[in-house]
Design goal:
The structure holds 2 protein chains of 2 kinds. By secondary structure, chain A is an alpha/beta fold. Chain A has 2 domains: 2-132, Rossmann fold (3-Layer(aba) Sandwich); 144-185. Chain A has helices at 12-24, 39-42, 61-72, 89-94, 114-127, 144-157, 161-175, 177-185; strands spanning 2-7, 28-31, 51-55, 77-82, 104-109. Chain A has a 5-stranded parallel beta sheet, sandwiched between helices. By secondary structure, chain B is of the alpha/beta class. Chain B folds into 2 domains: 7-215, 3-Layer(aba) Sandwich (Rossmann fold), CATH 3.40.50; 221-320, Rossmann fold, CATH 3.40.50. Chain B has 9 helices and 18 strands. Chain B has helices at residues 34-39, 64-77, 93-103, 127-137, 142-153, 239-242, 260-268, 295-307, 315-320, and strands at residues 7-13, 18-19, 25-26, 49-56, 83-87, 104-105, 110-114, 161-164, 167-170, 174-176, 186-188, 195-198, 200-203, 215-216, 224-228, 247-252, 272-277, 288-290. In chain B, helix 2 crosses helix 3 (93-103) and helix 3 packs parallel to helix 8. The longest helix of chain B has 14 residues, at 64-77. Chain B starts with 6 loop residues before the first strand and ends in a 10-residue tail after the last helix. In chain B, 45% of the residues are buried. The model of chain B has no long low-confidence stretch (mean pLDDT 89). The chains are: A alpha/beta, B alpha/beta.
């Protein structure tokens, strides 16, 4: 999972902890210090991330820009602010808007529950429609024997080969008790 | 505050097509459309306080009066604005930017041009393109382009710029990209970019931002005859037709000089004549040769120089002079 993370200057320590937690989960975290080299990569970098997380007490221009850009590209956006901080009116007005609701999560945190707030957001992402979207491309090499079987199966069941493989993996995943147990604890905060 | 109380004027002149997740289309044809159109992009309100001005509808083709009006409004509103964002059809974006570059020279406020990857409401004619935009780019690209444009509009730049996809390009250098990349439809003719979008907008360092005195002009001339020459294909200039024009601009392409007979015809026309070739210095005699700039810029400069002939030094001299950073590597 690739996440873009931005923090304002008033929350540096909390940001460090949050980034550490995300990296421990295996997420690739890009932040404002990342330098992107090369034209091909620089074009549509935000397109490559799955979510945007902004952490800060008082939003600066860059934070506002990252939230707006993330929303405009239909990315889920989490805005975290310390408990007791006042929500910027521009963001507050966005909350109930039907055009962004569901994509923007605004959450106040305490030092003690920051990881839990991140976990909740990631869990929501993992169960959202986005996680079910077939957007990851695999190049799969198979033997002629397997290929013959796939061709026969596709014709026999009137299904596309890719659909049949997807359905087969889905069945395997749902029946895998050990994996289901892992999923339940995937984002659990370790005490 | 993310807005920092920025006030941005949003001038709408086509290029406003938005496609939502459900496949609904929104664009601005008339004033009454603006509220619903803006409501599809509530995230813009995070960035600035915006005031919209409608200059042309989605299906309008921009004309001389639109461009003059655009410059006039920018001039009038400059005192109240931190910057200007112009939304225009993708086909006319470079032309619009180049014209503004000559009308509003060394302008104190930043002018950014942007738009959607498609223009016009003839959606049925563009089904394949719309499908591609929805599948690959989750829409017409306008939302992201606008966000980037608004973000950069309050920064100081040397002149009008096009913000499209991940590139911030000097408007006088922008040409259509020779690729199928719908997100990045423009490139800079001499690879000179003023900024790029990655995680934020990185503005190129060392841009000249302290500007000399503003030179503001109100007029461009509509009395220009544009010709695209093809070697071996004859054309003639009718005396009566020529009366309608003050200048002729001829576009040449390929590795050749203008044929002698055509050159003579142009010399005898009694009009100011500009021979344009993107790379070669072509022609001779009394004809002005322009190379090393974009076609849109050559046209824009001619429209401006002809209309303001009385206020400017000799036409030939002005056309050769670097006015708005239009020549390559300037």
């Amino acid at each position: 999972m690739k996440i873009f993370f931005y923090n304002t200057k008033d929350c540096v320590l909390e940001a460090r902890n949050a980034e550490k937690y995300l990296r421990n989960l295996g997420a690739t975290v890009w932040n404002q210090s990342v330098t992107v080299n090369g034209d091909a990569k620089a074009d549509n970098v935000l397109g490559q991330v799955e979510a945007v997380i902004v952490l800060g007490k008082k939003l600066d221009a860059q934070a506002g820009y990252m939230i707006a850009l993330g929303l405009s590209q239909n990315k889920p956006v989490l805005y975290l602010l310390p408990e007791g901080s006042e929500l910027d009116p521009a963001i507050k007005n966005l909350g109930p808007d039907k055009n962004v609701s569901g994509r923007l999560t605004i959450s106040h945190f305490l030092v003690t529950d920051l990881e839990q707030k991140l976990a909740d957001f990631l869990e929501k992402l993992d169960t959202s429609g986005l996680a079910e979207y077939f957007n990851i491309k695999y190049t799969l090499r198979v033997s002629r024997k397997l290929s013959d079987y796939l061709n026969w199966k596709a014709e026999h069941s009137q299904t596309k080969k890719a659909d049949w493989i997807r359905d087969f993996i889905k069945e395997l995943m749902e029946a895998d008790a050990e994996y289901q147990k892992y999923l339940k604890n995937k984002f659990k905060v370790k005490k | 505050m993310p807005k920092n109380n920025k006030k941005i004027y949003l001038l709408l002149a086509g290029g406003t097509v938005l496609i939502d997740k459900q496949g609904h289309f929104y664009s601005v044809q008339k004033k009454e459309d603006i509220a619903l159109w803006l409501a599809q992009m509530p995230e813009l309100n995070i960035l600035a306080d915006m005031e919209t001005v409608l200059l042309a509808g989605e299906d309008d083709v921009l004309q001389f009066s639109h461009w003059e009006n655009m410059a006039r409004i920018i001039k009038v509103k400059a005192g109240q604005a931190d910057g200007f964002v112009i939304v225009a059809p993708v086909e006319q974006l470079a032309q619009t930017g180049a014209i503004l570059g000559f009308l509003l020279q060394n302008f104190s406020k930043t002018i950014i041009l942007t738009g959607a990857s498609i223009s016009g409401t003839d959606y049925n004619q563009k089904k394949a393109l719309i499908k591609e935009l929805r599948d690959k780019h989750s829409g017409s690209g306008l939302k992201s382009n606008l966000i980037n444009a608004i973000q950069v509009a309050s920064q100081t730049l040397p002149g009008p710029a096009i913000m499209f996809g991940t590139r911030l390009i000097p408007a006088v250098k922008a040409i259509p990209a020779n690729s199928n990349d719908r997100a990045n439809m423009f490139v800079s003719q001499d690879n000179n970019y003023w900024g790029r979008v990655d995680f934020g907008i990185s503005i190129k360092s060392g841009l000249q931002t302290s500007k000399p005195r503003e030179n503001i002009y109100d007029k461009i001339s509509a009395k220009i005859l544009t010709l695209q020459d093809v070697r071996g294909v004859d054309w003639n200039l009718d005396k009566n037709d020529l009366l309608k024009y003050e200048a002729i601009i001829v576009k040449l392409a390929g590795n050749y000089q203008l044929e002698k007979e055509k050159q003579l015809l142009l010399e005898k026309s009694g009009r100011s004549v500009i021979l344009y070739h993107r790379e070669l210095s072509v022609g001779s005699g009394s004809l002005v040769c322009l190379a090393d700039c974009t076609w849109e810029t050559a046209v824009a400069k001619t429209l401006w120089a002809v209309a303001n002939r009385k206020k400017l030094p000799a036409f030939e001299k002005v056309m050769k002079q670097n006015i708005a950073g239009e020549f390559n590597n300037t």
